[in-house]
Amino acid sequence: MIPAGFVQELLARVDIVDVIGRHVPLRKTGANLVGLCPFHAEKSPSFTVSPTKQFYHCFGCGASGDAIRFLTEHLGLGFVEAVHELAQQVGLQVPQDDASPQQREQAQRRREHDATLAGVLKTAADHYRQQLKASPRAIEYLKRRGLTGEIARAFALGYAPDSWRGLASVFPRYDDPLLAEAGLVVVHDDGGETKRYDRFRDRIMFPIRNVKGDVIGFGARVVDRGEPKYLNSPETPLFHKGRELYGLFEARTALRERGVALVVEGYMDVVALAQLGLPNAVATLGTACTPEHVAKLLRFTDRVVFSFDGDAAGRRAAVRALEAALPHASDTRSFRFLFLPPEHDPDSYVREHGREAFERLMAQATPLSRLLVDVAQAGCDLATAEGRARMLAQAQPLWSQLPDGALRRQLLGELARLGGLGVDELASLWRVGASPPPATRIVDARPAPAAPRRGGVLTRQPPRRP
Ligand SMILES: [Zn+2]
Fold first, then answer.
1. Residue 304 CA to ligand 1 centre (angstroms)
2. CATH code 3.90.980.10 for 111-232
3. Over 60: is that where the pLDDT of 384 sits?
4. CATH number attached to the domain at 374-445
5. Spatial separation of the C-alpha atoms in residues 218 and 184, rounded to whole Å
6. Under CATH, which architecture does the 4-98 domain have?
7. Rg of the Cα trace of the chain?
């Protein structure tokens, strides 16, 4: 719990013009500043920031709020994350009622260390970007993939030269342990002798940024031939593959504007799709989709389309994505699963058939409800009692992940029908709605207590999606 008094102090200390100015170019008109609204698409600025009121307001879409609201809305940060972010910007320490002084000090040290690591990664990213300009071969490769300089800049693409100690020219100490901790330098023990060398060599560099825009790691692709084709930063204190999505920072405005996210498999797909007019794509980082990935996307949009290759591996990846989406599949959200023809990835499909055709595919992709039933039926002969029973056994762990709502209840009905049972029989088989012990039921019958207010206008409001 963050004390309300601290939030007020924090908002008094930060300047909303600085906070928003980091993300939106603003210019002064009279007492206020204006810029292009980050929450809706517009050509002339109707987004206004008032330094006296410390509020922003958009006359186009109605978005408005204080500095904390801006960070939660624009960057998709949680309230607590946004408070920490602002506190760090003005050098305040967030008091935590329930933390001991040691815990607080530890947390503070960890944040400082993370900031140092982020600084190291930023220096490396700047270096790789400069190196791209100096490498006609790497530029030629990107051109061959149809990318313009503008898109390369938007994604801050870079190039790691073919050198074992390229980063030695950028950092004062090549043996600084921070370089290894950031995943930039590989340290290995060669018969008692410690060897150090650059992890990324002769590769196109894709900086992976968190929602705040800080570089937290890299994806890297070979320029021509070589193994492995794709190489990611290792897990570090800043970078966790199971949580981060490539392109989320770059896509954040498009996700709100288009109202739908496309999840693809590779970073090259993300960049190529942005080039082809689909800036709302993100990619997992060489790992299956996790519930945390899905939760992160849902901060920006309620509709998600996962795209897969049409082969067996794609099918397996789709099942993992289904499992990741199920706990989040409330009635107002939509998840779809797009299986591309075997000869295509999203990039090549759009090139061949055009953006509209691809968007039609997205709109018609398999809904979560159908995929769940398909997966449950796999290998089951529904003409036999055994097959139907097996289908139900396969469906139960998937279905039980769904949050309660109309979708969950309809699927229970559909699975019952396919399984040759009455819906009540299936509910009792799966012990759905089984009466809890009386004591529990009395507690459950009461309405949930209202969340405590944090005081006045500072109460956290639910995210609004224009
Ligand atoms: Zn607006």
1. 23
2. yes
3. yes
4. 1.20.50
5. 9
6. Alpha-Beta Complex (3.90)
7. 25
